[in-house]
Write a structure and sequence with these properties.
single chain, 175 residues, alpha+beta, six-stranded mixed beta barrel, three-stranded antiparallel beta sheet
């Protein structure tokens, strides 16, 4: 079994965008003794659950000297377009590696170099919480548990707690 790796980021204020540092490099196979690690560069990734696949900018592809592996029709907020594809390795926080990831090329917001899509998010567990008004964002690979908020709430209301609550309401009504 693969040993889980995870990271958690907390911000005391609510965040509208989830960004993390990441490193991107040309793809190589870490299990192949004849393959050697390619240099990676540091970038900023924006996590996007609405994106089915991950994307890099033309600047990232140029800086890394990546050669397109093909092209596909990409559907985005501005419509659709034919875009280059690349194969890269991505290093997320705390040593979370994603190898041989097919990414597309596209335009992103200023200050964002990579869109981290569901192709990466689906590899693990992804959680966002806002207790006490801040934002806590956590991610791990591989997935190790099932999160069910409804089940947790329903389990906290046990029959004995439910009966006490009903009796308490009846006493308040009599007064």
């Amino acid at each position: 079994m693969i040993e889980p790796k995870a990271f958690t980021l907390a911000n005391p204020q609510p965040l509208l965008w989830l960004t993390t540092p990441c490193e991107i490099g040309e793809a190589y196979d870490p299990n192949d003794p004849n393959s050697s690690p390619c240099p990676k560069k540091k970038y900023v990734g924006l996590w996007d659950t609405g994106a089915s696949s991950s994307m890099i900018t033309n600047r990232v592809a140029s800086e890394l000297g990546l050669l397109p592996t093909g092209f596909i029709q990409s559907y985005h907020a501005q419509g659709k377009s034919l875009v280059n594809t690349y194969i890269v390795n991505v290093l997320l926080l705390n040593g979370i590696h994603v190898y041989n990831l097919k990414v597309t090329e596209g335009k992103l917001l200023d200050g964002v170099d990579m869109l981290i899509g569901m192709d990466i998010i689906n590899l693990g567990d992804f959680a966002i919480t806002h207790k006490n008004g801040g934002t806590v964002f956590s991610f791990q690979i591989p997935s190790t548990r099932h999160y069910d908020f409804v089940k947790k709430i329903n389990n906290e209301i046990t029959p004995s707690n439910s009966m006490r609550a009903k009796r308490s309401k009846k006493k308040k009504k009599k007064k």
